[in-house]
Amino acid sequence: MQGFALLMPMFESWYAAIQERAVMGTLGFWENLYKEVYINFLYQERYLNYLRGLWLTLEVTFFAALLGFALGLVLAMLRVQAVQSPDGRGRRASSAVMRFLSWLAGKYINIIRGTPMLLQILIINFGIMAAVKNKTLIGIVACGINSAAYVAEILRGGILSVDKGQIEAGRSLGLSRMQTMVMIVFPQALKSALPSLCNEFIALLKETSILAYIALSDLTKAADYIRSRTYSPFMPYIISGLMYLTVVTILTKAVGVLERRLRQSDAGNEAR
Amino acid sequence: MRETKRGNTGDVLIRVEGLRKQFGKLEVLKGIDETIKKNERVVLIGPSGSGKSTFLRCLNLLEVPTAGKILLDSEDITSQKCDVNRVRRKMGMVFQQFNLFPHYTILKNITLAPTMLSIMSAAEAKDSAMALLNRVGLADKANAYPGQLSGGQKQRVAIVRALAMKPEVMLFDEPTSALDPEMVGEVLSVMIELARDGMTMVVVTHEMGFAREVADRVLFMDDGLIVEQGTPSGILANPKNERTQDFLRKVL
């Protein structure tokens, strides 16, 4: 940031040189591009608006992902326990309460996935959490609740992909249903679900942009604010878009590396 | 430890009364009464679909019987009041597909249950696991992962994993069926040694040689019932029942 501030006088002088013709609207393409970048990014330290927005976006995404994972895990557990009865105690494997909770989890997933996220955010913002002043918290809760439904389905798929023999082996050793789940099924389920999970969190990052709708000053809202000051129709959105793209590209690369690592260890495991 | 390969067996360990199992409309077990004594080695044979695996899996409640009773040490384990997890500690099970935990090392595979269930301290479990691994000649694989082992090695580890719980009876569900032929011997020899040590064993297998060498009793199952049983020489050499004769003609 320090070096950037030192360069500011130079940027200002460049802009001063074209300012007069800018008013008359006779700038060439490259001059015009510079003007747009200057007024939408550099002028009055506007880049800080974007960076603050980006930070908030990352913050909301991080905590929403945590909430989504925790809630999604509970939902997934509730969903599979209804299916998973090769357990030796089929008769009392699912009590009435558990069956009800499982049914409830199914409805939750159906409703969240079957309605627009924007609608959910509006309901939480103006209805359920209307008394809460902290917009960031509302954003985290709204996105977390939404993400949980998708995470639940991803984890459920991962759990179901674990060979039934693994459960039988665990139970035959005298481990309880829960111990088998935690020590044997879940680590394997997580491994196979990890790439999809990471993709879900990348999607979540982008989806937080609709929180701008409830005036949360995330990266999209920051761009919108700049647009309202400069009336530039493209540049603010392009700048924020590039920022999203940069973060997503880095995350995608990281997921790719992770996937390759997992495949390598799988290959080692398959060799007989 | 007993000197003779076959001899007097002890008290009743498992008593099965009127055991039935239905999957939907399909009745797989149609009323089985059987008694297995301590130190007895019982081999179950029969055509596929005859219910022998289901019978074995009912013994440690991996399948819940539709009707009938199973008593282990005179305790009704099919009763709702019975704690299945505690019962299963007394019964080791070895599967056709090994079912080792791929995400843990061999040592952890073996020590997981004894330490989690607080039967042994971590150090005790490790010592006992290493001693068992030594016996099956796999001590050098303690820190390997299952994926790095051959089928025969995996199955020997699976046997050790079950033994680590110090079970009263070992159940084997076609332990050599998924193995390449050259690996069958190494697994059978571990099982034979186990039998010599006096372990109570119930084995579902197609290895008639194993049955002949080790079994105190051979049970022939067909269509959900135990059709014929007796000593290995009796059953394998002079089967009385038509279906037994028919089956043995095909496999021997």
Summarize the structure.
Chain A is mainly alpha-helical and 272 residues long. Chain A has 11 helices and no strands.
Walk me through this protein's architecture.
The complex is a heterodimer of chains A (272) and B (252). Chain A has 272 residues and is an all-alpha fold. Chain A has one domain: MetI-like fold (Orthogonal Bundle), CATH 1.10.3720.10. Helices cover 82% and strands 0% of the residues of chain A. The N and C termini of chain A lie far apart (55 Å). With 252 residues, chain B is of the alpha/beta class. Helix content of chain B is 36%, strand content 25%. Chain B has helices spanning 52-59, 84-89, 106-116, 122-135, 151-163, 181-196, 208-214, 232-237, 242-251; strands at 12-23, 26-37, 41-45, 67-72, 75-76, 91-94, 169-173, 200-204, 217-222, 225-230. A six-stranded mixed sheet of chain B has the order 6-7-8-3-9-10, with helices on both faces. In chain B, helix 3 (106-116) packs across helix 4 (122-135) and helix 5 (151-163) packs parallel to helix 6 (181-196). Chain A binds chain B through residues 86, 88-92, 163, 165-166, 168-176, 179, 183-184, 187-188, 191, 268-272, and chain B through 60-64, 80, 84-86, 88-89, 91-93, 95, 97, 99-103, 112-113, 116-117, 145-151, 158, 161-162, 165.
Supply Rg of chain B. Answer: 18 Å
User: What is the assembly state of the chains in this entry?
Assistant: heterodimer
Architecture of chain A, CATH level 2? Orthogonal Bundle
CATH class of chain A: Mainly Alpha
Largest interface, C-beta closer than 8 angstroms, per-chain residues? A-B, 29 and 36 residues
DSSP strand content of chain A: under 5%
Order of helices and strands of chain A: HHHHHHHHHHH
Reported for the largest beta sheet of chain B, the result is: 6 strands, mixed
Share of helical residues of chain A: over 70%
Cα-atom radius of gyration of chain A: 25 Å
Q: Spans of chain B with pLDDT under 50 lasting ≥5 residues?
A: 1-5
Count of DSSP strands of chain A: 0
